[in-house]
C-alpha cells in the first residue's frame, strides 16, 4: 500500500494521524480534568457574637416615654409611627439621635428600648455623648442638671 501512495502521501497521513492523536488527547484531558477536579471544602463558619453596646450614660432615655424625651430634648425633628413602633429623631449641631419606642406592656405607653446616634455627616458618635449634647442644648440658661 505504501508503494501506491508515494512519499508525500505518507507524510500527509502521518501528519493527520499526529493531529488526530493530539486532538483526541486534548479532548480526553478536558473530560478527565473535569471529572477529577473537586471543589475546595468551605471553611467552617465561626460563631458570631453580637457586639456589646454600653448603656452607660443612657439612663435618662432608655425606658423613657415620648413625653419624657420631649421634656429632655425639645420637640423631635421626626415623629414616625408604624403599628406598635415609634421612632423619634432629635438633631442638633453635634449629632442626630434616633430613639425607638415600643410597648413593653399590653396597655402601656411605648417606651425607649433602643437609641442610635450619628454625627450630622453620618459618621459614628458615642450615644451617651449625643444624649448629653442634645440635653445640654435644650436646657434653659441657668437651669441645673437633674
Please give the structural blueprint:
Blueprint (H helix, E strand, L loop, with lengths): L1 H4 L1 H30 L29 H8 L4 E5 L2 E7 L4 E7 L8 E8 L8 H12 L8
Antiparallel strand pairs: 1-2, 2-3, 3-4
Outline the structure in words.
- The protein is α+β, with helices and mostly antiparallel strands.
- The protein contains four helices and four strands; from the N terminus they run αααββββα.
- A four-stranded antiparallel β-sheet has the order 1-2-3-4.
- The model has no long low-confidence stretch (mean pLDDT 77).
Strand content: 15-25%
User: Number of helical runs?
Assistant: 4
Low-confidence regions? none
**SSE topology string:** HHHEEEEH
For the biggest sheet, the summary is:
4 strands, antiparallel
Separation of the first and last Cα atoms: 114 Å
> What is the C-alpha radius of gyration, as a whole number of Å?
37 Å
Overall geometry: extended
Structural class by sheet pairing and helices: alpha+beta
Q: Level of helix content?
A: 25-40%
Mean pLDDT: 77
E-strand count: 4
Order of adjacent strands in the largest pleated sheet: 1-2-3-4
